[in-house]
Design goal:
The complex is a heterotrimer of chains A (111), B (675) and C (208).
Chain A (H helix, E strand, L loop, with lengths): L2 H5 L15 H22 L10 H20 L7 H24 L6
Chain B lengths: L8 E3 L22 H5 L4 H30 L9 H36 L7 H20 L27 H29 L12 H33 L12 H35 L6 H14 L15 H29 L8 H24 L1 H7 L3 H31 L5 H28 L15 H31 L40 H6 E3 L5 E3 L3 H4 L9 E3 L4 H17 L2 H20 L31 H5 L11
Antiparallel strand pairs in B: 1-4, 2-3
Chain C lengths: L1 H12 L11 H27 L13 H4 L2 H27 L2 H31 L8 H32 L8 H27 L3
Helix pairs in contact in C: 2-6, 2-7, 4-5, 4-7, 5-6, 6-7
Classes of the chains: A mainly alpha (111), B mainly alpha (675), C mainly alpha (208).
Chain lengths: 111, 675, 208
């Protein structure tokens, strides 16, 4: 790292365009996202296919995949300093944990 | 909105002459007088303003407490009506928590964090000013309720459905809701700012595990704030929608669940307890090593126990709700987690004691407060563990036993620690010492006062006296202890008076006394290496940190027998504050303008909508002007002249970084700004 | 300059715990803010989940949001918002290349898609109102309108930011030097998108 870079922690200092994915990669991700959304919508028409007990797990699975794709690729978490991921994932995990427990005190999950 | 933290550079020693043709307000220049204070972005001045305002609200909240105690001094008290009593205990709690302890901790955080990590300012100096002005506008707003129909009367926890329009038809609860929302925005901005400051602005060599324990505890506190505030924000919005727009969140008749409020409130409320106490823990962790002449015992244990408290604080909230019918599973789980959280707290207490063990103790006023704080906190902690046992808690809930417990924790653990911090850092902040004799009298009177006030409440609670009831009948055995508590409350008030007299006398006496110098206590962390009071630019030269307790190691080394020897005098090791030409962030009026609009929006929603339009316009105007302001920076060769996208989103800003010299450790006089 | 050299050494040695140089203050602040937003939306989503079947007093045939969901319509809205994330990254990518015309196009496309989403939400809300599900009807509807309303306000703020970037670009103030500004607005925009990914599944698709 050159001295100029150290003294100017401006955008230039973290120019990591070389490891940024290409536009085509972004378009491929978007295609996957679109297909997943299509699949999710498809589950709504239950008459076509009976998903049974797999409905909710598969919906949640597709949601997590979509969430993960946007966060890692579009939001660059995959390529960026891990401290950003820690801040975000920290909030996310805390939110899920706390609210799942809070709903448990209402016996929400037993319905 | 692009609150660009691209400061207009002003140089120390040369009052700026930067003109600002855009916007209606002329760009403020460096200087003295009130303009300097209302436009400052200096973390030290902001810290002082937080401290002064917090002490003002301490007096306000104290007067409320004294009125409560006068009412309860004798059975069938007639001083206050039941309604006014409800308002007083509510506003006492709100004032002390949100307008006294939190801002007083913010005062220390603002003043000390940049100094302790070796920075010239916080990461976003203007957002820092914005936090202060929003907070004070919220504080004034909440207290304006006294003149506009009365304060909130729902308790500081404001349980539904008591907080609904049916049971609280006045505007008091609306003041509570909007006031806390406004203060919440302030804390949110401030906590993000301080987190970025600690993570990103440290001096060269200042690893996370070389930071002073105070900085660590304040960092944990900011994380708690940043994650807890959104939860209360949700709760407050739901309540506001219920009260103003007839939604059905807390209306049991419509099938709503009042426990929703309790859960949301305490998910925020329990971390809030640690938000109150951890800064005090940090202060104690600075004072005790200094006056024991030993490094803190088990530094990493201290840090990790603080982090552990921060984490575990999220898993215990329902212990506030044991009697609300949340079911045996929930009660058992939260009972266990609550017992466990005592462990890291116990680690801290043991480490403080071990730090003192074998040390060369000096009982200055600050040390007395620190030790007193530990002792009182331990009493409160032990009674706290008794609440963790659900069967015992069922007996204690809503009695004075709880009141006794949390006052020992918050007043004993929190306020005494913060007072100790005031005595400790006073010379650094104001350049003169507080009188030690008066200080020791202050300590002892305050300690006796608080034990007289809150000690008897343990007994009253176990005898069955209920909280939040405006009076009690004779013949239950409550009379004697209530009288003692009332006398005690006036002793505390007297102690606070002694403090103010001490402040005044010490100020008057200062010119005739020798200056304290940079390091009057022979202390350990970096803030003591700069002159007292701290020069505007903090450090002449950003220090390169090589160890924990850096400042101490610059003064002391070891001889061949591994004995501590002095290697440099304070004068040799300290900086003399003589640097000129250090780039500092330029002052701005816009944070104040943005902040003033917010209470107007709230008044408008409560009384007459056009005020909302005025307030919204003012805030938007302030944000937009703020975004435009740095464009004319003659030194702005960073190319951030773009970022004026107004979004009104106060928690987010874009644009460049703050003053680069701070981050890059550029030495004084390098006024090219490292570019 | 000795300090700077030391700084550099530490930077490399301690990159993993956020060294004091190298990452941008503003970007870090944005990520902390987004972490905290998780708690905000978590609270609103939990409130809705708790209340989603509470129809209010009186006869139990009062309508709740799940009765009137139009899943095909919402799917299209969701798809529109997802695609706006794509145009957002393309805008950033164009700016990095220094292609100002493409940057403007993609910024405008992102704002437009966001606008279409908001339009869809307005349409959805008015339809619900017509079908008897109002803000004050019952706890379920209050929670639904509050949650989706908060999300809508977030999207609207994002549109304002995008339009400001667009204006800045037209004025020639948006250059490759400002990629970080666009990146940070983008982070906010993608976050609003992932929140909707969550809402779409948990609120709309999972049956009551």
């Amino acid at each position: 790292m050159s001295e100029t870079v150290t003294e100017t922690p401006a955008p230039e200092a973290e120019d990591h365009s070389h490891d940024h994915p290409s536009d085509w990669a972004y378009i491929k991700i978007a295609l996957v996202l679109g297909v997943l959304t299509g699949l999710e919508t498809f589950t709504y028409f239950e008459t076509v296919l009976d998903w049974g007990d797999f409905l909710i797990p598969s919906l949640l699975f597709m949601m997590v995949i979509k969430f993960w794709l946007v966060a890692t690729w579009f939001m660059h978490l995959k390529f960026d300093n891990s401290i950003f991921s820690r801040m975000f994932v920290g909030g996310l995990v805390l939110a899920v944990g706390v609210y799942v427990i809070a709903l448990a005190t209402f016996e929400f999950w037993e319905r | 909105m692009a609150i660009i933290e691209e400061p207009l550079a002003l140089e120390t020693g040369s009052p700026g002459t930067v003109d600002q043709p855009l916007g209606m307000l002329t760009r403020p220049k460096g200087g003295n007088g009130w303009r300097d204070w209302v436009s400052t972005v200096d973390h030290k001045k902001i810290g002082i303003m937080y401290g002064v305002a917090a002490m003002f609200f301490f007096v306000v909240g104290g007067i409320e407490a004294l009125l409560i105690r006068v009412q309860l001094a004798v059975p069938d008290g007639q001083v206050l009506s039941a309604g006014l009593y409800n308002q007083l205990f509510t506003m006492h709690g709100v004032t002390m928590v949100f307008l006294f302890i939190m801002p007083l901790a913010a005062a220390f955080a603002n003043y000390l964090i940049p100094l302790q990590i070796g920075a010239r300012d916080v990461a976003f100096p203007r957002l820092n000013a914005l936090s202060f002005w929003i907070w004070i506008s919220g504080a004034v707003f909440v207290n304006s309720s006294w003149f506009l129909g009365g304060g909130a009367d729902c308790g500081w926890f404001c349980y539904s459905p008591n907080s609904g329009v049916t049971f609280s038809p006045g505007n008091g609860v609306d003041f509570y809701v909007f006031g806390l929302l406004i203060a919440g925005i302030a804390s949110m901005v401030s906590s993000i700012n301080l987190i970025v400051t600690v993570l990103n602005m440290r001096a060269p060599g200042m690893h996370l595990f070389r930071m002073p324990v105070l900085t660590w505890m304040l960092l944990v506190t900011q994380f708690l704030l940043v994650f807890a505030l959104p939860v209360i924000t949700v709760a407050l919005f739901l309540l506001m929608f219920d009260r103003l727009f007839d939604s059905q969140f807390f209306n049991p008749e419509a099938g709503a669940d009042p426990l929703l409020w309790q859960n949301l409130f305490w998910i925020f409320g329990h971390p809030e307890v640690y938000i109150i106490i951890l800064p005090s823990f940090g202060i104690i962790s600075e004072i005790i090593p200094t006056f024991s002449r030993k490094p803190i015992f088990g530094y990493s244990f201290m840090v990790f126990s603080g982090i552990a408290i921060g984490f575990m604080g999220w898993g215990v909230w329902a212990h506030h709700m044991f009697v609300s019918g949340i079911g045996p599973m929930s009660v058992a789980a939260f009972s266990l987690s609550t017992m466990f959280i005592a462990v890291p707290t116990g680690v801290k207490i043991l480490n403080w004691l071990a730090t003192m063990w074998g040390g060369k103790l000096r009982f200055s006023t600050a040390m007395l407060f620190a030790v007193g704080s530990i002792a009182m906190f331990t009493i409160g902690g032990v009674s706290g563990v008794t609440h963790a046992l659900a069967p015992a808690d069922t007996q204690q809930t809503d009695t004075y036993y709880i009141v006794a417990h949390f006052h020992y924790v918050i007043f004993g653990g929190g306020v005494l620690g913060l007072m100790g911090g005031a005595y400790f850092w006073w010379p650094k902040i104001f350049g003169h010492m507080l009188d030690e004799t008066w200080g020791k009298v202050h300590f002892w009177v305050m300690l006796i006062g608080m034990n007289l006030t809150f000690g008897p409440m343990h007994v009253l609670g176990l005898q069955g006296m209920s909280r939040r009831i405006d009076t009690y009948a004779a013949g239950f055995g409550f009379e004697a202890w209530n009288m003692v508590a009332t006398i005690g409350s006036f002793v505390i008030a007297f102690a606070v008076l002694i403090f103010f007299v001490n402040v005044y006398r010490s100020y008057k006496a200062a010119p005739s006394l020798p200056a304290p110098g940079p390091d009057p206590w022979d202390a350990r962390s970096l803030e003591w290496m700069v002159p007292s009071p701290t020069p505007e630019h903090n450090f002449d030269e950003i220090p390169v940190v090589e160890s924990e307790d850096e400042w101490w190691h610059r003064k002391y080394g070891y001889d061949e027998d591994n004995r501590v020897v002095r290697i440099a005098t304070i004068e040799e090791a300290a900086q003399d504050g003589s640097a000129v030409g250090v780039h500092l962030p330029a002052p701005s009026f816009w944070p104040l303008v943005v902040a003033v609009g917010m209470p107007l929006i709230a008044y408008g929603l409560m009384f007459t909508l056009w005020l909302t339009v005025v307030g919204g316009a003012l805030t938007a105007f302030g944000l937009y002007s703020w975004a435009l302001e740095p464009v004319d920076d003659p030194d702005a060769d960073h190319g951030h002249g773009d970022g004026h996208h107004g979004d009104g989103d106060d928690d987010h800003d874009d644009g460049g970084d703050t003053d680069e010299p701070t981050m890059a450790g550029v030495t004084a006089g390098d006024d090219a700004g490292g570019e | 300059m000795a300090t700077a050299t030391v700084d550099t050494a530490l930077d490399t040695a301690h990159e993993d715990h956020g060294s004091s140089t190298g990452i941008s203050n503003t970007k870090l602040a944005m990520w902390v803010f987004l972490g905290s937003e998780c708690l905000l939306f978590g609270g609103l989503i939990s409130t809705y989940l708790l209340y989603k079947t509470r129809r209010g007093p009186g006869p139990t045939n009062l309508a709740i949001p799940t009765d009137v969901f139009d899943i095909p319509f919402t799917s299209v809205s969701s798809f529109v918002l997802l695609m706006s994330s794509l145009t957002m990254v393309l805008a950033l990518s164009a700016l990095t290349r220094g292609d100002n015309a493409a940057t403007r196009t993609w910024l405008l496309a992102t704002a437009t898609l966001g606008g279409v989403f908001i339009g869809g939400q307005v349409y959805e809300f008015t339809t619900f109102l017509r079908e008897g599900v109002g803000f004050t009807s019952n706890p379920a509807s209050s929670a639904f309108f509050t949650l989706t309303g908060f999300h809508g306000v977030h999207v609207s703020m994002g549109i304002l930011m995008l339009m400001s970037l667009y204006v800045a670009s037209v004025q020639g103030n948006l250059t490759p030097k400002n990629t970080e500004t666009v990146e940070i607005v983008g982070l906010y925009w993608h976050f609003v998108d992932v929140v909707w990914i969550f809402i779409f599944t948990v609120i709309y698709l999972i049956p009551a």
